């Protein structure tokens, strides 16, 4: 029943980690990379701690206030187009689009406008993997080499130890964002997977966190080997359809054939100019291949908060959201994280933060011309999803502003919306 709506020779080996780092930092438009960094103009206050007595007893007024922030963002011209939904329990408290799906034609952003999700796609991959675990087709500790015999890392020991859980929690032992730079130079995914055996290990398998897109996408190959069906078909029939995600698809062709879809935009003086979507990260469906509308993502958010136990079981959700590896860099990566996070870890396709004492399940995504964020407080079943079709950092600051307001924390203008009664810290980087 649909929930109620109120809307990478020895010399080369020694140099390779440096090449990878250069590529990860400068290649640009990498899925889930930072969208830029602006230093705060005012001091970030000491991290506060939630007082349960200050948490909003009624989330509706919080959504109403958030809507006013959207009014200000819309008039500021800082985004081409943006779609936002706020959910409490199984009810959509706010569903709104601002700006344009296409500035050239003035097509507005609507709830059924389809956006690229970038790295928000990873949670769909881990959820499907969890379903295969529930089916008994594999376990989280299943060794990848047992399913994909030709797969290899730099040494035999690493190759034999790598598990499904390791690839889905970014504990492969490779340097950060291995080969993303080559992917962006149009190197095919299968070749890059084969060349992972040339990359010196940064640490032993399972012992350190380093974000990956290519290695993560091995779950697609594992899925095909175990089920005999394409990865995206499995996601469609086991997740999209049961959850009523009617606009959700995989791939650029599907995006462009959607009845309504958001074109990516770039700044051109004081206006936004649409351009055609880049194919690059679509070549790795598990890591960054999903397209979805706001309406779809409302259902996904509700499901991740436990609203569809017949599709995503409580046991599965607990496994997906359980912290696996520490990500201390997250604690200082952006102003709002420095000001609010007490702990940061990665689970299976999700980041798990301790937000002023409250657990926050979160992920962000970034590809050329698109940004996306999703976050929710599982204990409160309160969350938000935002999709936008440009590389503005402003909307990302709205997420912590929302949680601050709901949790009764000091008000900070993390989005840099302008003069307010709130303290202002500009620069709400994407991730």
Automatic annotation (TrEMBL):
Keyword check for Metal-binding: no
Domain Beta-lactamase-related: 66-392
Keywords: Signal
Domain of life: Bacteria
Pfam (any one): Beta-lactamase
Keyword Signal found: yes
Ranges in a coiled coil: none
Signal peptide range in chain numbering: 1-27
PANTHER family the UniProt entry points to: BETA-LACTAMASE-RELATED DOMAIN-CONTAINING PROTEIN (PTHR46825:SF15), D-ALANYL-D-ALANINE-CARBOXYPEPTIDASE/ENDOPEPTIDASE AMPH (PTHR46825)
Protein name: Beta-lactamase class C
Highest classification ranks of the organism: Bacteria, Pseudomonadati, Pseudomonadota, Gammaproteobacteria, Lysobacterales
